[in-house]
From TrEMBL:
<dbReference type="GO" id="GO:0005524">
    <property type="term" value="F:ATP binding"/>
</dbReference>
<dbReference type="GO" id="GO:0098796">
    <property type="term" value="C:membrane protein complex"/>
</dbReference>
<protein>
    <submittedName>
        <fullName>ABC transporter ATP-binding protein</fullName>
    </submittedName>
</protein>
<keyword id="KW-0067">ATP-binding</keyword>
<dbReference type="GO" id="GO:0022857">
    <property type="term" value="F:transmembrane transporter activity"/>
</dbReference>
<dbReference type="GO" id="GO:0016887">
    <property type="term" value="F:ATP hydrolysis activity"/>
</dbReference>
<dbReference type="InterPro" id="IPR017871">
    <property type="entry name" value="ABC_transporter-like_CS"/>
</dbReference>
<dbReference type="GO" id="GO:0005886">
    <property type="term" value="C:plasma membrane"/>
</dbReference>
<dbReference type="Pfam" id="PF00005">
    <property type="entry name" value="ABC_tran"/>
</dbReference>
<dbReference type="InterPro" id="IPR017911">
    <property type="entry name" value="MacB-like_ATP-bd"/>
</dbReference>
<dbReference type="InterPro" id="IPR003593">
    <property type="entry name" value="AAA+_ATPase"/>
</dbReference>
<keyword id="KW-0813">Transport</keyword>
<keyword id="KW-0547">Nucleotide-binding</keyword>
<dbReference type="InterPro" id="IPR015854">
    <property type="entry name" value="ABC_transpr_LolD-like"/>
</dbReference>
<feature type="domain" description="ABC transporter">
    <location>
        <begin position="6"/>
        <end position="231"/>
    </location>
</feature>
<dbReference type="InterPro" id="IPR027417">
    <property type="entry name" value="P-loop_NTPase"/>
</dbReference>
<dbReference type="InterPro" id="IPR003439">
    <property type="entry name" value="ABC_transporter-like_ATP-bd"/>
</dbReference>
Amino acid sequence: MTETVLSVRDIQKSYGSGSGRFRALKGVSLNLVEGESLAIVGKSGSGKSTLLHLMGLLDIPDEGEILYRGKSLSALTSRAADTLRNQEFGFVFQSFHLDPHSTVAENVSMPLVIGGVKKDRRRRVIEVLDRLGLADRADERTSVLSGGQKQRVAIARAVIAKPRILFADEPTGALDSTNGETVSQLLFDLNKQEGITLVMVTHSPELASTCVRQVVISDGLLLSTSGEGAAR
Ligand SMILES: Nc1ncnc2c1ncn2[C@@H]1O[C@H](COP(=O)(O)OP(=O)(O)OP(=O)(O)O)[C@@H](O)[C@H]1O
Ligand SMILES: [Mg+2]
C-alpha cells in the first residue's frame, strides 16, 4: 500500500507587493507518497525552492492548502507547525546553514536540543556522525571543515531526529563530483534503508533520474510528472 504523506493542493505564493509583486507559484498540486524519492527540477527562478519551503512548512502559501497525513495544516498555530517540522521533517540546504562557531556535534544535536531530547544525546550524535565518516571531527568547529564535510554535517543534523520526510535543496550543488556522489549516495541510503521520504531539488539530471519520480516546474507551474509514480 502506498500512502500519501503530504498533499499540496493548488498552492500559490507571491513575493513583494504592488507593481513589484512576483507570482512565484501559480497553483501547484502534488501528492507525496510515503517512502518515495521525488526530484523537483526546473530552470533557475522557476519556483523550486519556494515549493520546497512551503512543503516543509518553512513558509506559508497565500492560497491553497497543504495536508500532512490527511490533516490540513492551514489551521496550525506557528508553534504547532514548528513542533511538527522539528519532529517529522529534516532539511538540507545548498548553503549548509551551519553555525560556524559551534562544533560539529553541537550543530548536529540542535534538533534534539530543540525537541527537548536529553537522553543519549551525545551517543546518538556520535552514532550518526560515525555513519557519515565524521565521528573524529565531532568537537571541531564547522568553520574548519571542507564543503563536502559541511554538507555531511548538515545531513547528520537533518536526520538525527529521525524525520519522516527529508527535504533537500540542491544538496550536491556546492560540491565537487566525488563529494557530490558521496552525499547523494547517503541520501538514497537513508531513503531505502530507513524509509525516509526524500524530496530533492536538483539541477543534476543524473541525480533527478535516480529518484523514482520527477516533477518539472516552469514559471511557477507544475509542467509534468514522470517516473514510476507518475500515474499516482
Ligand atoms: N524572498 C523573496 N523575495 C522576493 N522574491 C523572491 C523571494 N524568494 C524567491 N523570490 C523570487 O521567486 C522566484 C522563484 O524563486 P525560487 O527561489 O523558488 O526559484 P528556484 O527555482 O529555486 O531557483 P534556483 O534554481 O535559482 O534556486 C524567483 O523569481 C525569485 O526571484
Ligand atoms: Mg532554489
